[in-house]
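Appendix B, Record 12. Input sequence as logged:
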Amino acid sequence: MSEKNTHFHLVIEANTIQKEYFKDLFRYRELFYFFAWRDIIVRYKQTLLGVAWAVIRPLLNMAVFALVFGKIANLDSEGINYPLFVLAGMVPWQFFANSLLDSSNSLVTHAPMISKIYFPRMILPAYYIIVSFIDFLISLVTLFALFIVTQTPFHWNLVMLPVFILLTILLCLGSSLWLSALTVRFRDFRFLVPFIVQFGMFISPVGYGSFLVSDTWRWIYFLNPMAGIIEGFRWCCFGVTHSYLPLALGFSITINALLLVTGFRFFRKMERLFADII
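Logged structural output:
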């Protein structure tokens, strides 16, 4: 009497029902918290300067931009203290850039875990955004501290700042879903994303204002969703209003929504293949 060998095949795949998938995201919230807390601790504990890096980096970038654009190029800042003008644009941009750089490689970095167990893969790019958000909050406090040091008055528009922070977070999420899924399929994106971030900083109003862009090309310029968000940050900080601000925000909100919806759908479509491809 011979025994038959029994083979078991473990299939790891995401829940195909959207409603159940959202429930999975809620069920695995503790895993999300663990990932975020672990990376926050590691980021600040295993560095020489710790939290100070979140202050030093934007200040160094601010100094370089203020020198190049403010002193050498002598660009207009509409009477606003130029270093503060730059830093108000640098803070949201650096949050967006750091989120993209970290979350785009999140799936590849956690490849062993993805191939062995099931959990909603969307947790991985999302928690990197939270880690970068901590740096953002520290940089934002630094910006407000410089307001006090330079005796720059706070404007009532600051009450609208949470709206633009939320827009930035949603843009980070939509972009990260696209790029993290594409990086699994096409590994060239590991080299492409840093170039996109570097190039994007110069086509975004970080070191200059959108008022310097010609009226003819401004609508094309505002196809960059970060342009509207940065202009919104400056409006909140300094209260300077421009006629093109509604156009910039309209483009930013629309493109933001498209990236978030299509990014979610594309990520969900690719999620079934992650364990095989990765």
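Residues 123-149 form the longest helix (27 residues).
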